[in-house]
Amino acid sequence: MGTKLIIDTDPGVDDAFAIALAAVSTDVELLGVTTVFGNVPLATTTANARRLLQLCDRTDVPVAAGASRPLVYQAARRASGVHGSDGLSGQAGSLPEATRPLEERDAVSLLVSLLEAADEPVTIAPIGPLTNIAALLAAHPGVRSKIARIVLMGGGVARGNSTAVSEFNIWADPEAARRVLAEDDVPCVMVPLDLTHQCAVDGAWLAKVAASGSLGRTLEAFTSEYRAHYRQVLGYDGIVMHDAVAVAEAIHPGLLRTESFPVTVDTSAGPARGMTLVDRRAVPVEAAGRPVDVAVDTDVDKLRDFVLSRLAGGR
């Protein structure tokens, strides 16, 4: 069947592209989707995830709601200024209503049951704050052997977006991120801002998505407020589809080139809170954290074509 995959998400415009990418890929066995607070509050991220799966005709995929706040300290703000108040540039109402009921069990319970039932290790793609994944690893250590790898979108090597040095998903719950990235032993791929910005797409690419069919038209319609933000960031009409880059790697291992570096997360209350500290020294001396595969490069045209062809219904 291909890659067994679970997505943990906070939709979010780029999350919508990522969910659709996995949902329509016939070489992916999408076992479940779990939701977390992040770009917008939990109730909204959960509704968006369910309705996005309905859009993709994936009523077979269970959705469970997870953490509504960080493990320790409440975040100071959300990303609604980037994604719009409903997470989808004000266009969430265009999505069909979900017919599959929300799971009564919480996200961690669903994750445990899916992992325990799997007959081979499962890839988890967390593309929001890492609260649910940290809780899973802390409370259910026995499932580690059922996780093939964690491919997460988050962090930055030399840049931030929520602060000068901190990327949003990590900044939203640094304690959870530290647990997953620096203090556990499950194989982990970190897809940072540095790489996702290299994979930005322009208005012409988005026009091709819109022209590809009804799914593409709906996804492109979600980008209006997101594009307004990224016009300022990029200096041209386009977007950074952060989460779709990570899910592309989860689907197609090796699409991104990675290098192993010790990584830890700053959990102090100071200005570096949420910073991912990637130790790139040739010979680290008392390096903090543990080795993480950090995505550093890709064939950008191939990556863009991969996402576009899948969203357009190709393989």
UniProtKB/TrEMBL annotation:
Domain of life: Bacteria
Keyword Hydrolase attached: yes
SUPFAM superfamilies: Nucleoside hydrolase
Domain (Inosine/uridine-preferring nucleoside hydrolase): residue spans on this chain: 5-304
Molecular function in Gene Ontology: hydrolase activity
Keywords: Glycosidase, Hydrolase
InterPro entries, alphabetized: Inosine/uridine_hydrolase_dom, IUNH, Ribo_hydro-like
Pfam families for this protein: IU_nuc_hydro
CDD domains: nuc_hydro_IU_UC_XIUA (cd02651)
PANTHER family given in the database record: INOSINE-URIDINE PREFERRING NUCLEOSIDE HYDROLASE (PTHR12304), URIDINE NUCLEOSIDASE (PTHR12304:SF4)
Designated name of the protein: Nucleoside hydrolase
